[in-house]
Structures are given as C-alpha cells and as structure tokens.
TrEMBL record:
Primary gene name: LOC107787445
Region of interest called Disordered, as start-end residue ranges on this chain: 253-288
Compositionally biased tracts (Polar residues): 255-275
Gene3D superfamilies given in the database record: endopeptidase domain like (from Nostoc punctiforme)
Lineage: Eukaryota, Viridiplantae, Streptophyta, Embryophyta, Tracheophyta
Any Pfam family: LRAT
PROSITE patterns xref list: LRAT (PS51934)
Protein name in the entry: Protein LEAD-SENSITIVE 1
Location of the LRAT domain: 34-184
C-alpha cells in the first residue's frame, strides 16, 4: 500500500519509464518530440507544429562547436541530410541548412523512431529515467504559447548552436517553458548535456569514491552522484533561470555568443516570472 498522501504510478507512467515512444497519429501541435540518432548516442529534438511539420534547431556545416574536427558533424549535426539530387518534395534540399528550420516529420525523424518529451514529471519518475534528455520536472506552457515561440524563432533565429549551452533540446525546452539560463558559468537547459556532465562528475570528481573499494560500492556511489547531479541541474529545480517572452529575445548579427541575448529590460529583472501572452499587443488591439 502507498504511504498516506502518495499515489500509485499510473500505467502510462510505468510504461514511460522504459520508453516515451508514441505513434504519429498521437501527435498534437505544440508537442516536444525527439528521435535518437547514431545508435542512441544522442537525440535530436523539435516542436511539432501540425500538418506533419516540425520546427527544430540544427547546426550546419562549418558551425560545429565541439571537438573542432570533422567528427563533430558525424556525431552531432542534425540537419536533414537527403542527397541534394533527390530532395524531399515537401522540404526541398536541407542538407546544408542550419539554425531554426521547418522540416516535415519524415525528414526530422530521418528513419528513426518517434518519442514524446515529458513535462511536469514527478521526482521519482525523473530519477527512474536514467537517460537524460527525455523528461523534466518543469511544467509546460499552453500549446498556443509553445507554437507562438516556435514560429517566432523560425523567423528570428535562436543564436549560435552550442552542444552544451544552446542545442536543439535547449530550443525545444525554451519553446515549451519560456525559460532561459541567465548565467554563463553553467550548461543550458538540455538534459542530454547535464547528463553527460553528471556522468563525468560521477566518474572523476566525487570524493565519495574513496569510501569504498568494491566494484558494487563504487557503482552505487557513482550512480548516486549521477542522479543527484542530474536532478539539481534540471530546468524545473535550478535557480539560475528566468522566464523571458520570446519577443524580448535578441539575436545579434555577427555575435559569437552561444546563447540568445536578451534585452536590457530582461537583464535588469532576471528573477521575473512574467508569463508570456499568447499574442502581441498589436494583435490584441486589433481583436478589441
């Protein structure tokens, strides 16, 4: 029996521990979706906007931020890579595309399976899903806000792609929550990036590893450090985030910053939890 005040996990939650896989006919506009690449090495994320289309953030050729070698493109580039001589009839040739772009669902998946990123999960479920980049404790905003942000960023960009601070998962999480990290000393919102750093911390940085010499003991200590590091780095619990309306994001031409810049007004009030309107002031005036 569960303890007072607790509840049993639902069947979808229990199944979700193993997989977030969904069918295409289950998709709804505003869903944050992802697909694993290169034998589950990493996942590519985007926002489903309806009519079989996905808005997502990619790195292009020559824009890699990582090892500085061709290996970066092999591992991390997520631009649709159909041969230029047989482009997608809906998307055209996007093999050299970069930044925020719109692709059909088939090009986005690139032969992979379809998964749904989960929002507002319980701490227990978050810890149970040991692979990062699949869920967050942060709640999602309404679909109309999500779609508004995605469409706005499709026209205005989302800064320079960076594996650890401004990647495709960061883009999708911002569209879903409106949250941005306002410090420059930590990773972005991406669960994949925080999981990688958490694993590194668990292996080489924890002084607790000296408390035991057994293999099982080291594994337990390492897993514990990994889980705690993932939890405190999640966008739903960390304190170095603020809610920024998408209209106040500024992508400076020629800027070398890895994250979208914000206006001076947003910097003056980093703790603001201002909610984003579903429409601009101009549209509201027209409606009235």
């Amino acid at each position: 029996m569960p303890e007072p005040g607790s509840r049993w996990w639902t069947v979808p939650e229990m199944v979700g521990i193993l997989s977030n896989k969904i069918q295409k006919d289950e998709l709804k506009p505003g869903d944050h979706i992802y697909s694993w690449r290169n034998a589950y090495l990493y996942a590519h994320h985007g926002i489903y906007v309806g009519d079989g289309m996905v808005i997502h953030f990619t790195r292009g050729a020559g824009q890699e931020v990582g090892t500085g070698t061709v290996l970066d493109r092999f591992i991390f580039s997520s631009s649709p890579s159909r041969p230029s001589d047989s482009p997608c009839p809906r998307c055209g040739d996007q093999s050299k595309a970069e930044g925020v772009m719109s692709s059909c669902l088939e090009c986005f998946l690139y032969g992979g399976e379809l998964y749904l990123f989960q929002y507002g999960v319980s701490p227990g479920l978050f810890i149970a899903k040991t692979r990062g980049g699949t869920c967050t404790l942060a709640p999602s905003d309404p679909p109309e806000h999500v779609l508004h942000r995605a469409e706005f960023l499709l026209q205005n960009g989302f800064g320079v792609y960076n594996i650890f601070k401004n990647n495709c998962e960061d883009f999708a999480i911002y569209c879903k929550t409106g949250l941005l990290v306002f410090t420059n000393i930590s990773v972005g919102r991406s669960g994949q990036a925080t999981s990688f750093l958490a694993a590194t911390t668990a292996i080489v940085s924890s002084p607790l590893r000296f408390l035991t010499t057994s293999v099982s003991g080291l594994a337990a200590v390492g897993y514990g450090v990994y889980c705690v590091s993932r939890f405190v780095s999640d966008i739903g619990v960390r304190r170095d985030v603020t809610k920024i309306p998408v209209e106040r994001l500024v992508v400076c031409p020629g800027s070398q910053e890895s994250e979208p810049a914000t206006t001076d007004a947003s910097k003056e009030n980093p703790g603001s939890q201002e909610s984003e309107p579903a429409a601009t002031d101009a549209s509201k005036e027209k409606e009235s």
